């Protein structure tokens, strides 16, 4: 089936920044599980204190974010071909809107954590499919972490494209890894032309 929609991750994919998730997880006191799920399970006052830790790091990284090279060109290609572009992030609406405005980017559908639908669950991706009226087979996902892969697989989306300098991190996963957005755009162009 031809791809008619692409779901982008925000941090590390559309914009680049330098989240130290190991340190953040240590500061918050969660293990390898979902930070949002952990925070959500806490009682006050611990809940507010630990949310503030996450939000402080996010504010810092949002401020420092730069647009990834090639994003504008890829969005332009999708727009020209009539392919929908969605953004799904575990970040807040405030930070997502700040970045979209700062870099003058537009998506057909934006889902942030206020939805209560968080990666690595496939729920936020299923919400995009519903909004855009697409089947999982007609959609691709572009991300940079295992959470993106897990969410895509959970939603039944098989076209998973990752941006990473370390393809070995994703060995064994049914994904295609690209060193940068230009290589990915070329690949998508050939896919769309096929
Ligand atoms: Mg990311």
Write structural notes for this entry:
With 194 residues, the chain is an alpha/beta fold. The protein is built from eight helices and eight strands, in the order E-E-H-H-H-E-H-E-H-E-H-E-H-E-E-H. It has two domains: 140 residues, HAD superfamily/HAD-like (Rossmann fold, 3-Layer(aba) Sandwich); 44 residues, no CATH class. 44% of the residues lie in helices and 15% in strands. A six-stranded parallel beta sheet has the order 5-4-1-6-7-8. A two-stranded antiparallel sheet has the order 2-3. Helix 4 runs parallel beside helix 8. The longest helix has 19 residues. The site of magnesium ion has 7 residues, from loops.
In DSSP terms (H or I, runs of 4 or more residues), the helix count works out at 8
Q: Report Rg.
A: 16 Å
Structural class of the helices, strands and pairings? alpha/beta
For this structure, the CATH topology of the largest domain is: Rossmann fold
List keywords for this structure.
194 residues; Rossmann fold; 2 domains; six-stranded parallel β-sheet; two-stranded antiparallel ribbon; 8 helices; 8 strands; globular; binds magnesium ion
Chain-wise SSE layout:
Layout: E1 5-8, E2 15-16, H1 21-28, H2 35-41, H3 46-64, E3 66-67, H4 71-80, E4 84-88, H5 93-102, E5 109-111, H6 123-132, E6 139-143, H7 146-154, E7 159-163, E8 176-178, H8 181-193
Parallel strand pairs: 1-4, 1-6, 4-5, 6-7, 7-8
Antiparallel strand pairs: 2-3
Magnesium ion binds next to loops.
Short description:
With 194 residues, the chain is of the alpha/beta class.
